[in-house]
Fold this sequence. Notes:
The chain is mainly β and 513 residues long.
Amino acid sequence: xxxxxxxxxxxxAAPSWSPDGTRIFFSSDRTGATNIYSARFAPGGPxxxxxxxxxxxTNVATGMFYPSVSPDGRWLAASVVLGYGYHVGVGALDxxxxxxxxxxxxxALPQPAPPADSVTTPxxxxxxxxxxxxxxxxxxxxxxxAGGARVGAYTSGVDVVGRHSYxxxxxxxxxxxxxxxxxxxxxxxxxxxxxxxxxEQDWENDAVVRNDRRQAVGTLRKRTRIVTxxxxxxxxxxxxxxxxxxxxxxxAHDYATDPAPLRARIxxxxxxxxxxxxxxxxxxxxNAQRPTVSISPEDGLxxxxxxxxxxxxxxxxxxxxxxVASANAYKSINLPTFAHQVLAVTGTVGYSxxxxxxxxEVGGASGSIISIVPGVVLGQGRRTFPVRGFAAAxxxxxxAFAASAEYRVPLAVLDRGWGMLPFFLDRSSLSAFxxxxxxxxxxxxxQGTVCRDPVLAQHFTIASAGAExxxxxxxxxxxxxxxxxxxxxxxxxxGALVGAPSVSTYFSLGLSF
Length: 513
Protein backbone atom coordinates (compact mmCIF):
# COMPACT_ATOMS: atom_id res chain seq x y z
CA UNK A 1 0.00 0.00 0.00
CA UNK A 2 1.47 3.36 -1.07
CA UNK A 3 -0.88 5.70 0.79
CA UNK A 4 -4.07 5.61 2.84
CA UNK A 5 -6.49 8.29 1.67
CA UNK A 6 -8.60 9.82 4.43
CA UNK A 7 -9.35 6.76 6.55
CA UNK A 8 -12.78 6.93 8.16
CA UNK A 9 -15.56 4.71 9.45
CA UNK A 10 -17.64 5.51 6.34
CA UNK A 11 -18.51 4.31 2.86
CA UNK A 12 -15.81 5.79 0.61
CA ALA A 13 -16.06 4.68 -3.01
CA ALA A 14 -15.56 5.34 -6.73
CA PRO A 15 -12.03 6.82 -6.65
CA SER A 16 -10.77 8.50 -9.84
CA TRP A 17 -7.61 10.40 -10.76
CA SER A 18 -7.18 14.01 -11.79
CA PRO A 19 -5.66 14.33 -15.28
CA ASP A 20 -2.26 15.35 -13.87
CA GLY A 21 -2.24 12.54 -11.30
CA THR A 22 -1.85 14.84 -8.30
CA ARG A 23 -5.30 14.43 -6.74
CA ILE A 24 -7.83 11.67 -6.15
CA PHE A 25 -11.58 12.29 -6.32
CA PHE A 26 -13.99 10.00 -4.46
CA SER A 27 -17.38 9.89 -2.73
CA SER A 28 -17.77 9.57 1.03
CA ASP A 29 -20.64 9.62 3.53
CA ARG A 30 -18.33 10.60 6.41
CA THR A 31 -20.78 13.35 7.44
CA GLY A 32 -23.92 11.22 7.02
CA ALA A 33 -24.69 12.34 3.44
CA THR A 34 -22.64 11.17 0.47
CA ASN A 35 -20.67 13.95 -1.24
CA ILE A 36 -17.63 14.38 -3.47
CA TYR A 37 -14.20 14.92 -1.93
CA SER A 38 -10.69 15.27 -3.30
CA ALA A 39 -7.37 14.53 -1.64
CA ARG A 40 -3.80 15.28 -2.62
CA PHE A 41 -1.86 12.20 -3.65
CA ALA A 42 1.26 12.11 -1.47
CA PRO A 43 2.92 8.68 -1.58
CA GLY A 44 4.38 7.75 1.76
CA GLY A 45 2.35 10.34 3.66
CA PRO A 46 0.89 9.54 7.06
CA UNK A 47 -2.64 9.28 5.62
CA UNK A 48 -4.24 11.79 7.97
CA UNK A 49 -6.89 14.12 6.47
CA UNK A 50 -4.74 17.22 6.97
CA UNK A 51 -1.71 15.54 5.40
CA UNK A 52 -3.80 14.59 2.38
CA UNK A 53 -5.14 18.13 1.90
CA UNK A 54 -8.69 16.72 2.02
CA UNK A 55 -11.30 18.99 0.44
CA UNK A 56 -15.09 18.77 0.19
CA UNK A 57 -16.31 19.71 -3.31
CA THR A 58 -20.09 19.28 -2.97
CA ASN A 59 -22.62 19.65 -0.19
CA VAL A 60 -25.96 18.04 -1.03
CA ALA A 61 -28.39 16.24 1.25
CA THR A 62 -29.51 13.58 -1.24
CA GLY A 63 -26.09 12.28 -2.27
CA MET A 64 -23.53 12.54 -5.08
CA PHE A 65 -21.58 9.60 -6.45
CA TYR A 66 -19.02 8.46 -9.07
CA PRO A 67 -16.92 11.60 -9.65
CA SER A 68 -14.98 11.77 -12.91
CA VAL A 69 -12.82 14.65 -14.22
CA SER A 70 -12.63 15.38 -17.95
CA PRO A 71 -9.27 14.69 -19.67
CA ASP A 72 -8.58 18.44 -19.99
CA GLY A 73 -9.24 18.98 -16.27
CA ARG A 74 -11.98 21.55 -16.85
CA TRP A 75 -15.14 19.60 -15.96
CA LEU A 76 -16.34 17.34 -13.17
CA ALA A 77 -19.11 14.81 -13.83
CA ALA A 78 -20.97 12.98 -11.09
CA SER A 79 -24.23 11.18 -10.38
CA VAL A 80 -26.67 13.04 -8.14
CA VAL A 81 -29.80 11.73 -6.43
CA LEU A 82 -32.87 13.90 -6.95
CA GLY A 83 -36.48 13.37 -5.98
CA TYR A 84 -37.21 11.39 -9.16
CA GLY A 85 -34.09 9.26 -9.47
CA TYR A 86 -30.40 9.37 -10.33
CA HIS A 87 -29.12 11.97 -12.79
CA VAL A 88 -25.70 12.70 -14.25
CA GLY A 89 -24.54 16.28 -13.80
CA VAL A 90 -21.52 18.17 -15.12
CA GLY A 91 -19.97 21.31 -13.63
CA ALA A 92 -16.93 23.46 -14.33
CA LEU A 93 -14.13 22.69 -11.87
CA ASP A 94 -12.94 26.30 -11.77
CA UNK A 95 -16.40 27.35 -10.53
CA UNK A 96 -16.38 24.88 -7.63
CA UNK A 97 -15.09 26.34 -4.38
CA UNK A 98 -13.65 23.52 -2.30
CA UNK A 99 -13.77 23.79 1.48
CA UNK A 100 -11.64 21.92 3.99
CA UNK A 101 -13.32 18.74 5.11
CA UNK A 102 -14.90 18.98 8.54
CA UNK A 103 -13.22 17.01 11.32
CA UNK A 104 -14.60 13.54 11.87
CA UNK A 105 -16.98 13.04 14.75
CA UNK A 106 -16.50 10.16 17.14
CA UNK A 107 -18.71 7.79 15.14
CA ALA A 108 -16.83 8.42 11.87
CA LEU A 109 -13.32 7.97 13.29
CA PRO A 110 -11.55 4.82 12.07
CA GLN A 111 -12.46 1.92 14.31
CA PRO A 112 -9.82 -0.65 15.24
CA ALA A 113 -10.72 -4.16 14.23
CA PRO A 114 -11.84 -6.29 17.18
CA PRO A 115 -9.60 -9.21 18.04
CA ALA A 116 -10.51 -12.40 16.27
CA ASP A 117 -12.37 -14.96 18.33
CA SER A 118 -10.67 -18.26 18.86
CA VAL A 119 -12.11 -21.18 16.90
CA THR A 120 -12.42 -24.57 18.51
CA THR A 121 -14.10 -26.34 15.61
CA PRO A 122 -11.78 -29.00 14.17
CA UNK A 123 -10.33 -28.14 10.75
CA UNK A 124 -11.16 -30.44 7.83
CA UNK A 125 -10.46 -30.42 4.13
CA UNK A 126 -13.00 -28.63 1.94
CA UNK A 127 -15.63 -30.95 0.51
CA UNK A 128 -18.16 -29.72 -2.06
CA UNK A 129 -20.53 -32.65 -1.83
CA UNK A 130 -22.67 -31.56 1.11
CA UNK A 131 -23.68 -28.37 -0.69
CA UNK A 132 -24.21 -30.07 -4.04
CA UNK A 133 -26.93 -32.48 -3.03
CA UNK A 134 -30.19 -31.56 -4.80
CA UNK A 135 -32.12 -29.14 -2.60
CA UNK A 136 -35.09 -28.64 -4.89
CA UNK A 137 -36.80 -29.93 -8.00
CA UNK A 138 -39.22 -28.43 -10.50
CA UNK A 139 -41.86 -30.20 -12.58
CA UNK A 140 -41.31 -29.85 -16.33
CA UNK A 141 -43.42 -30.70 -19.38
CA UNK A 142 -43.05 -30.64 -23.15
CA UNK A 143 -44.89 -32.16 -26.14
CA UNK A 144 -43.93 -35.67 -27.17
CA UNK A 145 -43.33 -36.87 -30.73
CA ALA A 146 -46.60 -38.84 -30.90
CA GLY A 147 -49.10 -36.23 -29.79
CA GLY A 148 -48.85 -36.91 -26.07
CA ALA A 149 -46.75 -35.21 -23.45
CA ARG A 150 -43.43 -35.64 -21.71
CA VAL A 151 -43.44 -34.92 -17.98
CA GLY A 152 -40.51 -34.96 -15.62
CA ALA A 153 -38.33 -33.06 -13.20
CA TYR A 154 -35.44 -30.58 -13.27
CA THR A 155 -32.83 -29.87 -10.60
CA SER A 156 -29.45 -28.19 -10.26
CA GLY A 157 -26.77 -27.51 -7.68
CA VAL A 158 -23.55 -25.63 -7.00
CA ASP A 159 -21.03 -25.83 -4.19
CA VAL A 160 -20.45 -22.89 -1.85
CA VAL A 161 -17.32 -21.59 -3.64
CA GLY A 162 -18.58 -22.16 -7.19
CA ARG A 163 -16.07 -24.79 -8.27
CA HIS A 164 -18.64 -27.45 -9.07
CA SER A 165 -22.04 -26.95 -10.67
CA TYR A 166 -24.51 -29.20 -12.42
CA UNK A 167 -28.02 -29.37 -13.83
CA UNK A 168 -30.14 -32.35 -14.82
CA UNK A 169 -33.58 -33.00 -16.26
CA UNK A 170 -35.48 -36.17 -17.10
CA UNK A 171 -38.68 -36.55 -19.15
CA UNK A 172 -40.97 -39.58 -19.13
CA UNK A 173 -43.43 -39.74 -22.07
CA UNK A 174 -47.07 -40.49 -21.44
CA UNK A 175 -47.31 -42.35 -24.77
CA UNK A 176 -44.31 -44.69 -24.46
CA UNK A 177 -42.12 -42.90 -27.03
CA UNK A 178 -38.90 -43.16 -25.00
CA UNK A 179 -37.13 -41.40 -22.15
CA UNK A 180 -35.38 -38.11 -22.85
CA UNK A 181 -33.17 -35.95 -20.69
CA UNK A 182 -29.93 -34.03 -20.29
CA UNK A 183 -27.12 -33.60 -17.77
CA UNK A 184 -24.44 -30.92 -17.47
CA UNK A 185 -21.50 -30.64 -15.07
CA UNK A 186 -18.93 -27.81 -14.94
CA UNK A 187 -15.70 -27.70 -12.95
CA UNK A 188 -14.03 -24.31 -12.39
CA UNK A 189 -11.48 -25.39 -9.77
CA UNK A 190 -8.56 -24.88 -12.17
CA UNK A 191 -9.43 -21.24 -12.74
CA UNK A 192 -8.91 -21.61 -16.46
CA UNK A 193 -9.90 -23.61 -18.40
CA UNK A 194 -13.41 -24.46 -17.25
CA UNK A 195 -14.04 -28.18 -17.75
CA UNK A 196 -17.46 -29.53 -18.65
CA UNK A 197 -19.16 -32.88 -19.12
CA UNK A 198 -22.49 -33.07 -20.94
CA UNK A 199 -24.85 -35.87 -21.80
CA GLU A 200 -28.26 -35.97 -23.46
CA GLN A 201 -30.76 -38.36 -24.99
CA ASP A 202 -33.58 -37.49 -27.37
CA TRP A 203 -36.11 -39.24 -29.59
CA GLU A 204 -37.45 -37.88 -32.89
CA ASN A 205 -39.65 -39.08 -35.74
CA ASP A 206 -37.29 -39.82 -38.62
CA ALA A 207 -39.54 -41.14 -41.39
CA VAL A 208 -42.93 -42.61 -42.26
CA VAL A 209 -42.90 -46.36 -42.94
CA ARG A 210 -44.98 -47.32 -45.99
CA ASN A 211 -46.02 -50.65 -47.45
CA ASP A 212 -45.77 -51.77 -51.07
CA ARG A 213 -48.89 -49.76 -51.93
CA ARG A 214 -47.32 -46.55 -50.49
CA GLN A 215 -49.72 -46.58 -47.57
CA ALA A 216 -48.44 -45.32 -44.21
CA VAL A 217 -48.23 -48.22 -41.79
CA GLY A 218 -46.01 -46.81 -39.03
CA THR A 219 -43.25 -44.46 -37.96
CA LEU A 220 -39.47 -44.83 -37.89
CA ARG A 221 -38.04 -43.18 -34.79
CA LYS A 222 -34.42 -42.25 -34.13
CA ARG A 223 -32.78 -42.09 -30.72
CA THR A 224 -29.80 -39.78 -30.38
CA ARG A 225 -27.41 -40.05 -27.43
CA ILE A 226 -24.55 -37.58 -27.05
CA VAL A 227 -21.73 -37.45 -24.49
CA THR A 228 -19.14 -34.66 -24.62
CA UNK A 229 -16.10 -33.53 -22.64
CA UNK A 230 -15.00 -29.93 -23.13
CA UNK A 231 -12.59 -27.26 -21.95
CA UNK A 232 -13.24 -23.53 -22.29
CA UNK A 233 -10.69 -20.77 -21.80
CA UNK A 234 -12.17 -17.30 -21.32
CA UNK A 235 -10.04 -14.14 -21.52
CA UNK A 236 -12.02 -11.02 -20.58
CA UNK A 237 -10.17 -7.73 -20.81
CA UNK A 238 -11.16 -4.10 -20.34
CA UNK A 239 -11.69 -3.47 -24.06
CA UNK A 240 -11.78 -6.98 -25.56
CA UNK A 241 -13.24 -10.39 -24.86
CA UNK A 242 -12.08 -13.70 -26.27
CA UNK A 243 -12.68 -17.37 -25.60
CA UNK A 244 -11.56 -20.72 -26.96
CA UNK A 245 -13.42 -24.00 -26.52
CA UNK A 246 -12.24 -27.52 -27.33
CA UNK A 247 -14.73 -30.37 -27.27
CA UNK A 248 -14.53 -34.12 -27.78
CA UNK A 249 -17.64 -36.25 -27.87
CA UNK A 250 -19.42 -39.36 -29.03
CA UNK A 251 -22.79 -39.30 -30.78
CA ALA A 252 -24.80 -42.51 -31.13
CA HIS A 253 -27.88 -43.14 -33.28
CA ASP A 254 -30.19 -46.15 -33.21
CA TYR A 255 -33.72 -46.72 -34.46
CA ALA A 256 -37.08 -48.13 -33.42
CA THR A 257 -40.45 -48.42 -35.10
CA ASP A 258 -44.02 -47.87 -34.01
CA PRO A 259 -45.48 -50.45 -34.04
CA ALA A 260 -42.37 -52.39 -32.95
CA PRO A 261 -42.82 -55.44 -35.31
CA LEU A 262 -42.23 -53.14 -38.32
CA ARG A 263 -38.51 -53.02 -37.54
CA ALA A 264 -38.03 -56.54 -38.90
CA ARG A 265 -39.67 -55.55 -42.21
CA ILE A 266 -37.61 -52.45 -43.08
CA UNK A 267 -34.05 -52.04 -44.34
CA UNK A 268 -31.55 -53.92 -42.17
CA UNK A 269 -29.36 -50.79 -41.94
CA UNK A 270 -31.81 -49.51 -39.32
CA UNK A 271 -31.27 -52.57 -37.12
CA UNK A 272 -27.83 -51.47 -35.88
CA UNK A 273 -26.46 -48.52 -33.95
CA UNK A 274 -24.20 -45.90 -35.48
CA UNK A 275 -21.44 -44.14 -33.54
CA UNK A 276 -19.87 -40.81 -34.47
CA UNK A 277 -16.81 -39.63 -32.52
CA UNK A 278 -16.61 -35.85 -32.85
CA UNK A 279 -13.98 -33.14 -32.33
CA UNK A 280 -15.06 -29.49 -32.16
CA UNK A 281 -13.07 -26.28 -31.75
CA UNK A 282 -14.64 -22.84 -31.49
CA UNK A 283 -13.40 -19.35 -30.76
CA UNK A 284 -14.85 -15.87 -30.20
CA UNK A 285 -13.23 -12.42 -30.18
CA UNK A 286 -14.95 -9.07 -29.68
CA ASN A 287 -14.18 -5.45 -28.93
CA ALA A 288 -17.73 -4.18 -29.47
CA GLN A 289 -18.90 -1.66 -26.87
CA ARG A 290 -22.30 -1.74 -25.17
CA PRO A 291 -23.01 1.41 -23.08
CA THR A 292 -25.60 1.12 -20.33
CA VAL A 293 -28.44 2.98 -22.07
CA SER A 294 -27.61 1.81 -25.60
CA ILE A 295 -30.01 -0.15 -27.80
CA SER A 296 -27.29 -2.24 -29.48
CA PRO A 297 -23.57 -3.00 -29.40
CA GLU A 298 -21.65 0.00 -30.71
CA ASP A 299 -18.31 0.79 -32.35
CA GLY A 300 -16.61 -2.55 -32.61
CA LEU A 301 -16.19 -5.93 -34.24
CA UNK A 302 -17.14 -9.45 -33.22
CA UNK A 303 -15.84 -12.60 -34.86
CA UNK A 304 -16.59 -16.27 -34.23
CA UNK A 305 -15.62 -19.56 -35.86
CA UNK A 306 -16.41 -23.23 -35.27
CA UNK A 307 -14.85 -26.27 -36.94
CA UNK A 308 -16.02 -29.86 -36.51
CA UNK A 309 -14.53 -33.20 -37.53
CA UNK A 310 -17.01 -36.05 -37.24
CA UNK A 311 -16.03 -39.70 -37.71
CA UNK A 312 -18.01 -42.87 -38.18
CA UNK A 313 -16.72 -45.54 -35.82
CA UNK A 314 -14.76 -48.20 -37.69
CA UNK A 315 -14.85 -46.29 -40.99
CA UNK A 316 -12.07 -43.72 -41.42
CA UNK A 317 -13.31 -42.79 -44.89
CA UNK A 318 -16.62 -41.79 -43.34
CA UNK A 319 -15.17 -38.74 -41.57
CA UNK A 320 -16.87 -35.46 -42.36
CA UNK A 321 -15.59 -31.91 -41.86
CA UNK A 322 -17.60 -28.72 -41.44
CA UNK A 323 -16.79 -25.11 -40.57
CA VAL A 324 -18.83 -21.99 -39.86
CA ALA A 325 -17.44 -18.46 -39.49
CA SER A 326 -19.23 -15.19 -38.79
CA ALA A 327 -18.35 -11.52 -38.31
CA ASN A 328 -20.35 -8.55 -37.00
CA ALA A 329 -19.52 -4.85 -37.25
CA TYR A 330 -21.18 -1.96 -35.42
CA LYS A 331 -20.81 1.82 -35.90
CA SER A 332 -22.56 4.37 -33.71
CA ILE A 333 -23.98 7.58 -35.18
CA ASN A 334 -24.32 10.55 -32.85
CA LEU A 335 -27.69 12.12 -33.62
CA PRO A 336 -30.12 13.78 -31.17
CA THR A 337 -31.77 10.66 -29.74
CA PHE A 338 -31.56 9.35 -26.17
CA ALA A 339 -28.84 6.90 -27.28
CA HIS A 340 -26.63 6.49 -30.32
CA GLN A 341 -28.16 5.31 -33.56
CA VAL A 342 -26.31 2.27 -34.88
CA LEU A 343 -25.44 0.87 -38.29
CA ALA A 344 -24.85 -2.87 -37.93
CA VAL A 345 -23.80 -5.47 -40.50
CA THR A 346 -23.16 -9.19 -40.21
CA GLY A 347 -22.12 -12.07 -42.42
CA THR A 348 -21.88 -15.85 -41.95
CA VAL A 349 -20.46 -18.56 -44.22
CA GLY A 350 -20.62 -22.32 -43.82
CA TYR A 351 -18.81 -25.22 -45.49
CA SER A 352 -19.40 -28.96 -45.15
CA UNK A 353 -17.70 -31.66 -47.20
CA UNK A 354 -19.43 -34.26 -49.36
CA UNK A 355 -19.46 -36.89 -46.59
CA UNK A 356 -21.85 -34.87 -44.43
CA UNK A 357 -25.06 -36.46 -43.19
CA UNK A 358 -26.93 -33.17 -42.64
CA UNK A 359 -27.50 -29.79 -44.31
CA UNK A 360 -27.04 -26.16 -43.43
CA GLU A 361 -30.45 -24.46 -43.23
CA VAL A 362 -31.15 -20.91 -44.45
CA GLY A 363 -34.20 -18.88 -43.39
CA GLY A 364 -36.14 -17.76 -40.35
CA ALA A 365 -35.71 -15.05 -37.72
CA SER A 366 -32.84 -15.28 -35.25
CA GLY A 367 -33.00 -14.29 -31.61
CA SER A 368 -32.74 -15.72 -28.13
CA ILE A 369 -35.03 -17.66 -25.81
CA ILE A 370 -36.37 -17.21 -22.30
CA SER A 371 -36.67 -20.24 -20.05
CA ILE A 372 -39.93 -19.50 -18.23
CA VAL A 373 -39.46 -22.72 -16.28
CA PRO A 374 -37.10 -25.56 -17.23
CA GLY A 375 -38.58 -27.27 -20.26
CA VAL A 376 -40.85 -24.32 -21.17
CA VAL A 377 -39.20 -21.63 -23.29
CA LEU A 378 -40.33 -18.53 -25.17
CA GLY A 379 -38.64 -17.42 -28.39
CA GLN A 380 -37.28 -18.94 -31.58
CA GLY A 381 -33.63 -19.25 -30.61
CA ARG A 382 -30.44 -18.42 -32.45
CA ARG A 383 -30.18 -19.35 -36.16
CA THR A 384 -26.88 -19.65 -38.00
CA PHE A 385 -28.19 -18.48 -41.39
CA PRO A 386 -31.28 -16.32 -40.76
CA VAL A 387 -33.29 -14.57 -43.47
CA ARG A 388 -36.40 -12.92 -42.06
CA GLY A 389 -39.65 -13.32 -43.97
CA PHE A 390 -38.81 -16.91 -44.95
CA ALA A 391 -39.50 -20.13 -43.10
CA ALA A 392 -36.63 -21.97 -41.46
CA ALA A 393 -34.83 -24.29 -43.88
CA UNK A 394 -36.28 -22.54 -46.94
CA UNK A 395 -32.95 -23.40 -48.57
CA UNK A 396 -30.65 -26.28 -47.62
CA UNK A 397 -27.21 -27.34 -48.77
CA UNK A 398 -23.62 -28.20 -47.90
CA UNK A 399 -22.51 -24.64 -48.66
CA ALA A 400 -24.37 -21.67 -47.20
CA PHE A 401 -24.11 -17.98 -46.48
CA ALA A 402 -26.22 -15.25 -44.92
CA ALA A 403 -25.74 -11.51 -44.56
CA SER A 404 -27.71 -8.70 -43.01
CA ALA A 405 -27.57 -4.93 -42.63
CA GLU A 406 -29.59 -3.00 -40.04
CA TYR A 407 -30.06 0.63 -39.10
CA ARG A 408 -31.18 0.90 -35.47
CA VAL A 409 -32.78 4.06 -34.08
CA PRO A 410 -33.65 4.75 -30.40
CA LEU A 411 -37.32 5.68 -30.07
CA ALA A 412 -38.25 6.51 -26.47
CA VAL A 413 -37.29 5.95 -22.85
CA LEU A 414 -40.49 4.74 -21.19
CA ASP A 415 -39.42 4.06 -17.58
CA ARG A 416 -42.89 2.95 -16.53
CA GLY A 417 -44.17 0.27 -14.21
CA TRP A 418 -47.52 -0.81 -12.77
CA GLY A 419 -47.35 -0.30 -9.03
CA MET A 420 -45.82 -3.31 -7.31
CA LEU A 421 -46.54 -5.68 -10.18
CA PRO A 422 -43.43 -7.32 -11.71
CA PHE A 423 -43.77 -5.51 -15.05
CA PHE A 424 -41.57 -2.61 -16.13
CA LEU A 425 -41.13 -0.92 -19.52
CA ASP A 426 -37.61 0.36 -20.12
CA ARG A 427 -36.88 1.68 -23.64
CA SER A 428 -37.95 1.19 -27.26
CA SER A 429 -36.33 1.40 -30.68
CA LEU A 430 -36.99 0.96 -34.40
CA SER A 431 -34.83 -0.71 -37.02
CA ALA A 432 -34.85 -1.26 -40.77
CA PHE A 433 -33.08 -4.28 -42.25
CA UNK A 434 -32.12 -6.10 -45.43
CA UNK A 435 -31.33 -9.84 -45.29
CA UNK A 436 -29.93 -12.20 -47.91
CA UNK A 437 -28.83 -15.82 -47.89
CA UNK A 438 -28.20 -18.84 -50.03
CA UNK A 439 -27.48 -22.56 -49.84
CA UNK A 440 -26.58 -25.25 -52.37
CA UNK A 441 -24.84 -28.56 -52.89
CA UNK A 442 -21.55 -28.66 -54.82
CA UNK A 443 -22.90 -31.46 -57.03
CA UNK A 444 -25.45 -34.25 -57.18
CA UNK A 445 -23.97 -37.00 -54.97
CA UNK A 446 -24.53 -40.64 -55.84
CA GLN A 447 -23.44 -41.88 -52.41
CA GLY A 448 -24.51 -40.87 -48.94
CA THR A 449 -27.82 -39.52 -47.73
CA VAL A 450 -27.59 -35.86 -48.82
CA CYS A 451 -27.55 -33.93 -52.11
CA ARG A 452 -29.35 -36.67 -54.07
CA ASP A 453 -31.86 -34.23 -55.58
CA PRO A 454 -30.53 -32.31 -58.65
CA VAL A 455 -32.46 -29.22 -57.54
CA LEU A 456 -30.14 -28.85 -54.55
CA ALA A 457 -27.14 -28.39 -56.84
CA GLN A 458 -28.55 -25.10 -58.14
CA HIS A 459 -27.26 -21.91 -56.52
CA PHE A 460 -30.47 -20.37 -55.19
CA THR A 461 -30.49 -17.22 -53.06
CA ILE A 462 -33.26 -15.47 -51.14
CA ALA A 463 -33.55 -11.92 -49.78
CA SER A 464 -35.94 -9.78 -47.78
CA ALA A 465 -36.39 -6.30 -46.35
CA GLY A 466 -38.44 -5.08 -43.42
CA ALA A 467 -38.65 -3.24 -40.13
CA GLU A 468 -38.80 -4.09 -36.43
CA UNK A 469 -40.11 -2.46 -33.28
CA UNK A 470 -38.16 -3.43 -30.14
CA UNK A 471 -39.29 -3.02 -26.56
CA UNK A 472 -37.02 -3.69 -23.59
CA UNK A 473 -39.07 -4.73 -20.58
CA UNK A 474 -38.85 -6.69 -17.37
CA UNK A 475 -41.57 -9.32 -17.09
CA UNK A 476 -42.06 -11.24 -13.83
CA UNK A 477 -38.53 -10.22 -12.82
CA UNK A 478 -37.45 -6.63 -12.14
CA UNK A 479 -33.75 -7.48 -12.37
CA UNK A 480 -33.66 -9.16 -15.80
CA UNK A 481 -35.04 -7.06 -18.67
CA UNK A 482 -35.60 -8.72 -22.04
CA UNK A 483 -35.78 -7.25 -25.52
CA UNK A 484 -39.01 -8.13 -27.33
CA UNK A 485 -38.91 -7.71 -31.13
CA UNK A 486 -41.99 -7.39 -33.34
CA UNK A 487 -41.21 -7.39 -37.05
CA UNK A 488 -42.64 -7.31 -40.54
CA UNK A 489 -40.69 -8.68 -43.52
CA UNK A 490 -41.25 -8.63 -47.29
CA UNK A 491 -39.40 -11.10 -49.53
CA UNK A 492 -37.55 -9.24 -52.29
CA UNK A 493 -35.94 -12.16 -54.12
CA UNK A 494 -37.18 -15.71 -54.82
CA GLY A 495 -40.04 -15.54 -52.34
CA ALA A 496 -42.40 -17.41 -54.66
CA LEU A 497 -39.73 -20.05 -55.32
CA VAL A 498 -39.87 -21.32 -51.73
CA GLY A 499 -43.49 -20.43 -51.01
CA ALA A 500 -42.83 -17.44 -48.76
CA PRO A 501 -45.81 -15.12 -48.15
CA SER A 502 -45.68 -11.67 -49.72
CA VAL A 503 -45.78 -10.10 -46.24
CA SER A 504 -45.10 -11.84 -42.94
CA THR A 505 -45.01 -10.79 -39.31
CA TYR A 506 -43.01 -12.42 -36.55
CA PHE A 507 -42.02 -12.16 -32.90
CA SER A 508 -38.58 -12.79 -31.47
CA LEU A 509 -36.46 -12.07 -28.41
CA GLY A 510 -33.10 -10.35 -28.09
CA LEU A 511 -31.06 -8.74 -30.84
CA SER A 512 -30.95 -10.36 -34.25
CA PHE A 513 -27.14 -10.10 -34.03
